[in-house]
Amino acid sequence: MHAYVSNCYPAGWVPAVAVAEAQAPVPGDPRGDAPDLAGLAVPMTGTHAAASPEQAATAAGEYACARAWAALTAAHTRIAGQLSNALARACDLSINDFEILLRLDHAPAPGLRLTELNSAIPLTQPSLSRAVARLGQRGWLSRAGAADDRRGVLITITPAGRDVLRSAVPVHAQTIRESLLDPLTPREQDLLARALSRVAGG
């Protein structure tokens, strides 16, 4: 399959499905069985079976792209669900709440405008505004007028918000470690980090 990956991915990049397939069980491997993605393959029957070698290669490359995307989205859905449950149980936070507090904790004084925060949080501006208001009502954020703009509002994290974030960070880290990193070898972890960094960077 991997001979066709270059049809749709940058040179040197290995898609998520390759990482998953690299986890196929081998004798003595303590990690156990890897996820079975074989069901995502589409059998080459009918018109595909009679296709030319070039058409077959193109079709195989397209299926490789589809399987890689399916593996990536399945992994994201699974880990995001586990992370959401863990943060809600331990800290009464949603994933977006955590991301808002984390971004503000690292923001320089005097804070961030809503538009600046919006560029880092996957929410519409009205949804983000409601989330910020809700966190403010809980005493975890504060809002103040911008000195250089009468209509501007700067958002900062409060000491109480930092306390909540400090309790949430270990929960977040443990969930990511158990769900994403522990099933991979150190080499696979490095490959995954480099691949996703390249994609995220455009």
Folded structure, characterized:
The chain has 202 residues and is mostly helical. It has helices at 16-21, 53-91, 95-105, 114-118, 125-137, 159-181, 186-200; strands spanning 112-113, 141-146, 149-157. A hairpin with a 2-residue loop joins strand 2 (141-146) and strand 3. The radius of gyration is 22 Å and the shape is elongated. Mean pLDDT is 79; it is low at 1-35 and 40-44.
Features:
202 residues, mainly alpha, 3-stranded antiparallel β-sheet, 7 helices, elongated
Question: What's this entry about, in short?
Answer:
The chain is mainly α and 202 residues long.
Annotate the secondary structure layout.
Elements lengths: L15 H6 L31 H39 L3 H11 L6 E2 H5 L6 H13 L3 E6 L2 E9 L1 H23 L4 H15 L2
Antiparallel strand pairs: 1-3, 2-3
Task: Count helical runs.
Answer: 7
N-to-C CA distance: 25 Å
Proportion of residues in extended strands = 5-15%
Largest sheet, in brief, is: 3 strands, antiparallel
Going by helix content, strand content and strand pairing, the class is: mainly alpha
SSE succession: HHHEHHEEHH
Low-confidence stretches: 1-35, 40-44
* Shape estimate: elongated
Average pLDDT number = 79
The rounded Rg comes to 22 Å
Compute the number of strand runs.
3
